[in-house]
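TA notes, week 10

Several of you asked for a full example with nothing omitted. So below is the full record: structure tokens for the whole chain, then the designed sequence directly under it. When grading your own attempts, check the secondary structure regions first.
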């Protein structure tokens, strides 16, 4: 199976999700519509909406509300990207200029606020109190994760436990919310809802771990962003944490100073230091452990092409190059 075949399996639903997204901004102010359409058409994989649709289909959901749910999950994700790019002062995402680079920080923050608030309007129309509660908690956790990451920027002493707390909050919880809310919508039993939540958490961890590894050894064209962005922003991720544990005193000093200073001046030297240790293989091994947990969580789900697609996406999270 390939990512394109996963999308082909649910192409009708994905088309409906895109139509729903466009419809939700159709009658908005011109700036909101213009910026939102730019983001929607910027080449994202729709990974989280795909998880919603596949989870619902794997659990034999036969209604249409999963389209609405997938669209609002994408709105939440897109809002976080808008805010993140402002906080990080990013100028490139998915190989294109970021919205804040084109329209400015003010517009990006305000349109991000609009997308967050619109997602809650969309939640309300589902008339599913448990989904509303789950996703309200999820969005709050996302915000706390970003704040916690901000608090720990430029700190070379960041440990693995705190790192995992940050990536669970800022990344994994939205994956989990997407899968668990689809299970709730499908009226699954409690064991299945928990299993889908655990699947989402696991694949979210793996996804972020690989993102953090690719930031030091990926192909900028495939990634659609600059290498070393995390280092430039003073973000300490697992490859750096492991490298600090395994490197010599000269390398430790270089890495520590680079983290404190930020910027990309010493990126090449940092990449060499990382390559001289097992930091990347260690990060990939950690991601693989989470993938194994994701696959295990799916054992409760009936066998089908949709479950096989969910299993493939777990592997894809580690095998991808961008």
């Amino acid at each position: 199976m390939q990512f394109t075949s996963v999308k082909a399996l649910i192409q009708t639903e994905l088309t409906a999700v895109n139509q729903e997204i466009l419809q939700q901004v159709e009658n908005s102010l011109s700036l909101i519509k213009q910026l939102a359409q730019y983001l929607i058409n910027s080449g994202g994989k729709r990974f989280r909406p795909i998880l919603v649709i596949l989870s619902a289909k794997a659990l034999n959901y036969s209604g249409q509300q999963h389209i609405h749910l997938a669209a609002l999950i994408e709105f939440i994700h897109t809002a976080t990207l808008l805010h993140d790019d402002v906080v990080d002062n990013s100028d490139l995402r998915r190989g294109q200029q970021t919205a804040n680079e084109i329209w400015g920080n003010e517009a990006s923050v305000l349109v991000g606020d609009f997308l967050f608030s619109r997602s809650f309007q969309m939640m309300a129309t589902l008339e599913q109190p448990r989904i509303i509660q789950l996703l309200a908690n999820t969005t709050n956790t996302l915000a706390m994760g970003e704040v916690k990451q901000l608090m720990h920027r430029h700190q070379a002493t960041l440990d693995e436990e705190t790192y995992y707390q940050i990536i669970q909050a800022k990344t994994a919880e939205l994956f989990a919310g997407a899968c668990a809310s689809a299970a709730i919508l499908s009226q699954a039993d409690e064991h299945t809802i928990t299993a889908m939540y655990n699947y989402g958490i696991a694949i979210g961890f793996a996804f972020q771990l690989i993102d953090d590894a690719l930031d030091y050894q990926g192909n900028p064209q495939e990634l659609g962003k600059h290498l070393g962005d995390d280092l430039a922003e003073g973000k300490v991720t697992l490859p750096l944490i492991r490298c600090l544990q395994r490197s010599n005193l000269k390398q430790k000093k270089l890495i520590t100073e680079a983290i404190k200073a930020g910027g990309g001046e010493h990126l090449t030297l940092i990449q060499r230091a990382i390559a001289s240790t097992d930091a990347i293989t260690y990060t990939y091994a950690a991601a693989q452990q989470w993938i194994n947990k994701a696959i295990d969580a799916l054992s409760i789900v009936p066998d089908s092409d949709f479950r096989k697609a969910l299993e493939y996406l777990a592997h894809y999270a580690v095998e991808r190059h961008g």
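The radius of gyration is 19 Å. Use that as a sanity check on your answer.
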